Amino acid sequence: MHHDGVYANYIAAEWCRGNGVTENRNPSDTDDVVGRYAQASTDDVERAIGAAEAAFPTWSTGGIQARSEALEQIGAEILSRKDELAHLLAREEGKTLAEAHGEVLRAAHIFKFFAGECVRQSGELLPSVRSGVSVEITREPLGVIGIITPWNFPLAIPAWKIAPALAYGNCVVFKPADLVPASAWALAEIISRAGLPTGVFNLVMGRGSVVGDALVNHPAVAAITFTGSVPVGQRIGAACAAAGKKVQLEMGGKNPQVVLDDANLEQAVELCAQSAFYQAGQRCTASSRIIVTGGIYGAFVDALAARLQRIQVGHALAADTDIGPVASAGQLEQNLEYVAIGQAEGATLRCGGERLERGTPGYYMRPALFIDTDNRMRINREEIFGPIATVQRARNYEEALALANDTAFGLSSGIATTSLKYAQHFKRHSQAGMVMVNLPTAGVDYHVPFGGRKGSSYGPREQGRYAQEFFTTVKTAYLAA
Ligand code: NAP
Q: Please, which domain of life does this record's source organism belong to (predicted)?
């Protein structure tokens, strides 16, 4: 597991040291070193892919009972160690303990869900249009799956890719984000003790430009599932298309939250505060554009600004913290730059947006609320990925809907209204993969499809039963009696 105090890669059922080290620091207190993590070389990546390839024939045809039990065991261990894992996650990524607990539970539930799905796979048997012939439609695994994940959900996103990959009979080479290897390593260690045959699951840590690139471009990798930013996703998509690989990309968002005159004001303020600012706005489903109709605009802005004053920004592990630091120095710098961009574009900074000092050196900032914004401004068009939200005014529901849809993204969207008519219309006409009525745009169930439209996603949906679209391929077999 460890070599000279370094957490190692896991390749062909062995812990391997690699050729570099990433020092993982706590964003709430940069003097706190969470651990030192190995970086894989391109040779290590080759070996991991080779091991996965060698394991595939047996694993893909082996019993679904063994697969199901392994997934169940992984889910059960995550659950039984939830406090320890939540502490590690909050310490390395900066989300609060409460938020980290939620993520750990979600990861456990995902493994348990796919333990069940694994033994519920089915096909179809049809009569042929030719007499004496029958047609059978089944699903088969793809082979070696490369999994590349971002830093904002270091446990849940790996879980929702690894669990279905294994459940449907694939082998895995997993590359977590270099910023947050600790949760990924803890998950890999749990998986390493679940009784999987050698090579079925491999962990290779390190930089995307080295480890991720080697994974994407290896001919023995059948498919890549990626979550991260738009530019990296687009590059990976192009490389996979050129090589004929299956690819699934979950990328950014600029999610709108509509608030209509007839909304319950208190509820609308609370759900906007939750989905725009909690987890420091670092959720791909965060609502960063709040679109409010004229009759409620003034009261809503005053109430949301007052709500933001009550939010405690602090150390992620402190009991009274509502919002932890942002995840990295680079992310903090980018957020502060967008605050300046918004002001230069003529938006009014109603509150927040400045760096904060706390008892420990960390990447703290006060949540920022821009009002009187315009949908053409960069702060309304580009994903910021921080605790920054904008408010813009709409004349009526129709204009609010048009503004909500006027974006390059389409992950999630929300509407706060007591009108059944507008709720129904918005559900049908919002150009997003996920739509919320009187709920935050962030916060989704683990057993139903997840994904977006337009620039947010490419390829089949993730999670729930729909995960099989990506992790399997369809076979049509004809049989003459
Ligand atoms: P990122 O920079 O795109 O990185 C994502 C992953 O790709 C990391 O593991 C990264 O490695 C790797 N990578 C970087 N360059 C690569 C390359 N050339 N080849 C292969 N892999 C490469 O994104 P991030 O900053 O970690 O995450 C934030 C973004 O994720 C946001 O834009 C957010 O919206 C998006 N996100 C989307 C969803 C969704 O489901 N739609 C969910 C969560 C987050 P290293 O960073 O380790 O070098």
A: Bacteria
